[in-house]
Structures are given as structure tokens and as C-alpha cells.
Amino acid sequence: MMSEQELREQLATCTRIFAMQGMIGVFGHVSVYQPDRKTVLITPGMGSNKGSLEAKDMVATGLDGKPRRGTEGPPVEWPIHTALHGARSDALAVAHLHTPYATLFSIAKREFKPVTLQGAIFSDGVPLYPEAQLITNPARGETLLKSIGNKRAVLLRGHGIVVVGQNLPEVLFASLVLEDDAKKTLQAATLGEVGTISPQECKTFGAEIALERRAQRAWNYFCSLEARWDKQASTGRSELFP
Ligand SMILES: [Zn+2]
């Protein structure tokens, strides 16, 4: 099991990678949960520079959103994270983002379906949280839980996305894949009808290569890019599937 300091460092790195990729900016936050201590570590709120966050900048709270120490609280939409961490043992890491392409599926009246092999991790679909509102209290967090069910991600109407995973590398990978599939769907649609990967095809592909292995490879790759990123917005950008 990772120590709190290691988790803080991994969370800071994950968030800087999202910033490098242009997937997080003024808004958006990422968290990781320590079930044994019932402690949530979350990135600081609105306006913090996500591209330069360090381990010490992470805010520690309980599942009630109250800071464990100090006066700095979590981002206003903390109930997204606490609801998921508290209810799902497979949601130890959570990202709430407003990425340019996946967010379009929270606006267009069009269901998200995987269009690439890597997109197979979303074979169960990505449901929609129907309310056009920020998730700023536990009641809304409960509604979010109902919307996402046991799925890996949920779209927030007219707003953004939430992606969950067993750990931060998995959340990073899944978020990159969701964004990439959303982008490719949009681009392919300009050429004509969009073909999707069927649930059976998704299952077959998923059985051939473990998600954990793919997530770890992507994590190592993006960590190495981030290590030499000059921290200017988006200059380190690279595609998961260039
Ligand atoms: Zn938001």
C-alpha cells in the first residue's frame, strides 16, 4: 500500500499530466482515497495552477469534506469525490474534468459508444447526470451515484465528465481514452456514419490485454514527458494515440 506522501506525489503528477494535455485548467479536480484512514486527498480548488502542483499542495479531507488540518477547504464540487469514494470500493481515484471533446457528449443528444479498441473499457456505456448544476452538496452527490451506477464514467449535462478507477494511473488512462474516443467520433462523423465497437468485440479485446498493464505503460510514458515539460500551458501536449 502506498504511503500518504507517495499518494500526494502521484496525485500531483497525475494532475500535472492532465494540465500538460490540456484536460484540466482553471476548473477541474482529481482525488485519491485512503480507505483505511477514510481520508480523501484532493487537488486545490478553482484557479490553482494545476500545471505546477506539488505533493504539499494537496488538500486532505474526511468523507464529509472537512479539511483534516489547516483552513484551506477542498474545491466546491467535493461531493463528487466523497460520494464515489464512500460508496464504491472500485473508485479509489476520481477525476472531474471539463475536457474539450468528451464534454461535447454531455451537450449533444448523442449516446457515447466506443469507436476504438482502447475505448472498449467503456463498453458498458457512459451515462448522463441529467441536471444542469454543479455538484456542491451531498444530496447531489447521491444523485450522481444513481446516474453512474457501477460504470467507469459519467457525463454531467452541459458541464463535464467524471471518471473513476482503482488508482490514479487507471483514471489517467481511462480519461485519456474517453477524450480520445470522443474526439475520434467527432472527426469520423465528418466523413460519414460512425462505426462503433460492439459489446462482444469490446469483451474480446479486454480479455486479450489487461487494463492494468495498459494503464501502467501509459502512466510511465506520460510521467517521462511531464518530467521534461516546461510548464507552459499545453506545450507538452501529446496524444495517447497520435
Ligand atoms: Zn465541474
How would you summarize this macromolecular structure in one to three sentences?
The chain is of the alpha+beta class and 242 residues long. 36% of the residues lie in helices and 12% in strands.
How would you summarize the topology of this molecule?
Layout: H1 4-20, E1 29-34, E2 39-42, E3 59-61, H2 78-87, E4 93-97, E5 128-129, H3 138-148, E6 153-156, E7 160-165, H4 168-189, H5 199-208, H6 211-227
Parallel strand pairs: 5-6
Antiparallel strand pairs: 1-2, 1-4, 2-3, 4-7, 6-7
Bound molecules: zinc ion.
Spatial strand order of the main sheet: 3-2-1-4-7-6-5
- The overall average pLDDT, rounded, is 94
Shape: globular
Helix-strand topology string: HEEEHEEHEEHHH
Our Rg estimate from Cα atoms comes to 17 Å
Structural class per helix/strand content? alpha+beta
